[in-house]
Amino acid sequence: MNIRIGNGYDIHKLVTGRPLILGGIEIPHSLGLLGHSDADVLTHAIMDALLGALGMGDIGHYFPPSDPKWKGANSMRLMEQVAEMIVSQGWKIGNIDSTVIAERPKLKPHLKSMRDSLAQTLKVDIDRISIKATTNEELGPVGREEGICAYAVVLLVKD
Ligand SMILES: Nc1ccn([C@@H]2O[C@H](COP(=O)(O)O)[C@@H](O)[C@H]2O)c(=O)n1
Ligand SMILES: C[C@@]1(CO)OP(=O)(O)OP(=O)(O)OC[C@H]1O
């Protein structure tokens, strides 16, 4: 069996007047993430990890922030395209582990919906997808609630 590993990281600013979307789920909060797309920082980190495992660059290469086509893009639709790249090369997702670092809001009540949403989009069982949440203990820009960041690691397998 062949295996490939990939890691991804992303960070977006928190601002007023934008929805907070993580893993394709809108989470009630007074602030949202700023970006050219929907700024779904978790989905972006996972996409970068998937592309990294394939040695195929990063999301900015396929969906350039300079291209008006991706303005307001739903990141789950972009991830569908990345999933197709994986499948077309004969790879399957072994598992994904991720961490969202956010001072607020509490993400624990939303983690199951976020995992469900990612599993459905990637067409894998939910038990292959892990999302953890932690604060930054009030340290740095994330600790000051200026932004939210996410890390992801993926394992791809091929028979
Ligand atoms: N945005 C967040 C951050 C954390 N959690 C949950 O709280 C637990 C404790 O977090 P610490 O940063 O203080 O270690 C953590 O294990 C998460 O379950 C959360 O739900 N949302
Ligand atoms: C998906 C894209 C499209 O503009 O989203 P952005 O909101 O610009 O987010 P970023 O993580 O800075 O870069 C990835 C982009 O390709």
Automatic annotation (TrEMBL):
Organism: Waterburya agarophytonicola KI4
Record site: Transition state stabilizer: H36, T135
Function of the protein: Involved in the biosynthesis of isopentenyl diphosphate (IPP) and dimethylallyl diphosphate (DMAPP), two major building blocks of isoprenoid compounds. Catalyzes the conversion of 4-diphosphocytidyl-2-C-methyl-D-erythritol 2-phosphate (CDP-ME2P) to 2-C-methyl-D-erythritol 2,4-cyclodiphosphate (ME-CPP) with a corresponding release of cytidine 5-monophosphate (CMP).
Protein name: 2-C-methyl-D-erythritol 2,4-cyclodiphosphate synthase
Class of this enzyme: lyase
Matching CDD domains: MECDP_synthase
A single BP term in Gene Ontology: terpenoid biosynthetic process
Domain of life of the native organism: Bacteria
Binding site for 4-CDP-2-C-methyl-D-erythritol 2-phosphate: D10, I11, H12, H36, S37, D58, I59, G60, T134, T135, N136, E137, R144
NCBIfam families reported for this sequence: ispF
Keywords tagged on the record: Isoprene biosynthesis, Lyase, Metal-binding
Matching InterPro entries: MECDP_synthase, MECDP_synthase_CS, MECDP_synthase_sf
Transmembrane segments annotated in the record for this chain: none
Cofactor binding note from Swiss-Prot or TrEMBL: Binds 1 divalent metal cation per subunit.
GO molecular function: 2-C-methyl-D-erythritol 2,4-cyclodiphosphate synthase activity; metal ion binding
Catalytic activity from the UniProt record: 4-CDP-2-C-methyl-D-erythritol 2-phosphate = 2-C-methyl-D-erythritol 2,4-cyclic diphosphate + CMP
Subunit note: Homotrimer.
Pathway where it operates: Isoprenoid biosynthesis; isopentenyl diphosphate biosynthesis via DXP pathway; isopentenyl diphosphate from 1-deoxy-D-xylulose 5-phosphate: step 4/6
Chain residues that bind a divalent metal cation: D10, H12, H44
Limits of the 2-C-methyl-D-erythritol 2,4-cyclodiphosphate synthase domain: 3-156
Cofactor: a divalent metal cation
EC code(s) of this entry: 4.6.1.12
Recorded family membership: Belongs to the IspF family.
